[in-house]
Amino acid sequence: MAFLFHPFHKIPLIVQTVPRLSLQLTLPNSLTLLRILLTPAFVFLLLSGEATALQLSLAVFVIAALTDWYDGWAARRWGSITRWGKFLDPLADKILSSAALLAYVSLGLVDAWMVWIVIARDFLITGLRSYAEYLDRPIVTSKSAQAKTFGQFIVIYYILILYVARTIPPVYNEFGSTIDTLMNPDVLFGMMLVVTLSTVGTGILYLIDNRTFIREISEGKAIGGS
Prior knowledge:
single chain, mainly alpha, Four Helix Bundle (Hemerythrin (Met), subunit A)
């Protein structure tokens, strides 16, 4: 029973240090935050149903997408790559692309089940990458995953540009039949199916390639250094 009277202040404590992320409002990080803030504005304009607002939604989306290119360029140009930026940048991309796809579902342009598969996979993998970055064990994006993301944004742009083109009378009067053909539900279904299959495929590859790290997380062993 002597242990009941043992002075607790003499018992050594084992403290595991976990790296901290502090937000640094560098230009690249500010642009990343701007991309997140522009996302609800884009969705609001796209779903408004008013021609001018729809046209503005395309401009807002392009500006938001350009911040993705420019924040990466600025970070490399001025050497201001931060752990916070590496944590937030892919998340901002997924927020923007997911919001666009959900808006398309609301407009009846694409099937919800495919969009939810894409979103679930994207946020699962982005969460895994972000946690790995937090632990200072970054996961390198594979070429196949980069190609998947590129293809996904191509489809998003394809649908958005054609959908907005319908609201511009001179354009639609001239190319209306072509636009309607390109926006045929079967065409959009096929494109989204390719995106969905590639999304699932690259997600599985991510999990296989990082199975050791995932096992460490499940066993509580993935602890980062300070």
